[in-house]
Amino acid sequence: MTAIVHNVSPGLWRLAWRRLRADRVAMASLAVVAAFLLMLVLSASGLIVADWEQEVGVNYAPPGFVGAAQPPPAEPAQAAPTQPMQAAPAQAVPPQPMQATQALPDNPFDPLADDIRALRAQLAAGGAGAIDMYGVTDPLAGDLAQLRGARGDTSAAHAGAGRLATLPFGADKWGHDIIKKTIKGGETSIVVGLVAALLAVSLGSLFGALSGYFGGVVDDLFNWFYSIFTAIPSVLMILAVAAVLQQKGVATIVLILGLTGWTGPYRLIRAEYIKHKAREYVLAADAIGASHWRKMFTHIFPNVSHVALVQMSILVVGFIKAEVILSFLGFGVPVGVVSWGSMLNEAQNELILGRWWQLTAAAVAMALLVTAFSLFTDALRDALDPKVK
Amino acid sequence: MIAYVVRRLWQMLPTMLGVVLLVFVLFNWVGGDPAFILAGKMANAESIANIRRQLGVDQPYYVQLWIFVKQIASFDFGLSWATGEPVSHIIATRLGPSLTVLLPLTLLETLLGIALALAVAFVRGSLTDRAVMIACTVGMSVSILVYIIVFQYGLAYKLGLFPVQGWGESFWENLLRYATLPVLIGLAVSIAPTLRLYRSFVLDEVGQDYVRTARAKGLGERRVMWVHVLRNAAIPIITHVMANLPALLIGAFLLERFFGIPGIGREVILAVERSDFPVIKAITVYVAAATMVFNLLTDLMYQAVDPRVQLT
Predict the structure, then answer these.
(1) Of A91, B4, B172, B265, which shows the fewest CB atoms inside 10 Å?
(2) What does the DSSP assignment read for A116-157?
(3) Which of A232, A350, A376 should be substituted to probe chain B, the one whose Cβ sees the most B Cβ atoms within 10 Å?
């Protein structure tokens, strides 16, 4: 009796997965990407960081390992944070206007420190007005405090009751916990990247399928679109569309990126369809009477979908970077929505005041995700390439 | 050759027509009524009607399109909505500063990229090679914004090695004083992707038969790489550099914005911020035209450096 052995040869996806499993860099980067995606799902569903807008720390509370801000002796009500990078800005001769509002921390090396303290004390005693954290006298501060007191509004207080002097990763201008803000910002940036890439790849696949499968006039039409969209550099295209679409919103950025990014997937998917449409399995499908639509998407598409997947993976990285730049410039997410780009925008001005933690948090989180995603994309492309055995 | 150029120019027409249509649809149709943007907060019906008549947007769409085509052909896009400066003057005066940054950047990036790519290809497959490639991936993952913010803060603001921002009148002052840091940052940002790309170009050549022949006749690895491989790898490299020049004009917009360089890229950002449609329209159309012309030049050069290429 001979046993019948079914030798099912492993499919493309199983082989690709096997190759990925063997690649240690790929698995490590996949783990990082998965961790970010898990964080995204948790924060989008409100299970974590739903309270990121709570002002838990004092304004600009430094990270715990830097140490708590020392309130200057002359002004107990004001918590001017010590600056971790304080020496240089205080010593440099002001070369540009940014320094006019430079914070004056209690720098022990500052030869004028005593004078400043004396001046502050004198001003405070004279009741001429409080000095804000930049060392600028505000003659209306007293009135403002009265008004605020009348309205019961304490949000502008520098050291509100119950606010922490340090947070593990520091706080921003309003006292939001940076780590929570970074996760929330990541949610926006990653969602924009993923959805926009999905839109771009869907458009590119659809156009490419129609173009490659039908050829002729359809092909000419889509090639014309392609030549138009590639004649305009993508940066310029994105900015031009951003200028036209007036209402800001997450959906707007997704549209901008998705509608301008379809050309790469289109070119490759079209080439695959041209190659596949004459293969036997498509002729067989034709023989049993399958419709054009069915041949294109039920028969051919699964065989070219690995191209679409790699393209999508490449686009996600590009779109996350693009969203960050757009939001930084103020053409991206609306005010009130936090993304890594809007964090970098805030952090740009904070750095001059020596508050580097928001910049570092947003930059590191983004670099970590993008590095992992890029390495995974490279590995995925290698794993899916049938030429590599 | 001439027949080829003429045919290519002829083929550009539909694409250019498409670009014009696309820009027209975007700005004259999707962009909404410019009169409301221009009239601002103090708008009343009369002033809006006035502005609409001045701009010609009360005309039917085909008349507007014809106006737009005439503007492109005559290089006269009228006045900027934001500053009242003639658009043609804006483009002419912003081109110089952009090129002052871009040309040194492109030159240095290409030379450094080639040198590093050959060096890395020299040790291909080794641990050094892998480490450099992973370092490139990490370097590419940090946002360009972070590079600019940190370098501008660290090198210019804190250490005072470079001016924080600014732009002067004389070319040499601009090139040597104000453009230095932007060029260095641009180099730091672009060297990683460039190196990855050039390395793949070089590695494509290393496997060819002529390389084996060169080795077989006893040439040193150094000579094989620097003479035989480089000459052939230079073809895709030149193509890549040439074809990307027009896009770079806009691509350096972040550098121009941060360092206060009055170039084309910064002008685009300003125009987007102020909804200054004539400026964006003009720059988009001309950059698209430049891209197409450069693509043609690239193909011609391709044939010049590689006699095997037949232009048909």
Answers:
(1) B172
(2) HHHHHHHHHHHTS-EE-TTS-EETTHHHHHHHHHHHT--TT-
(3) A232
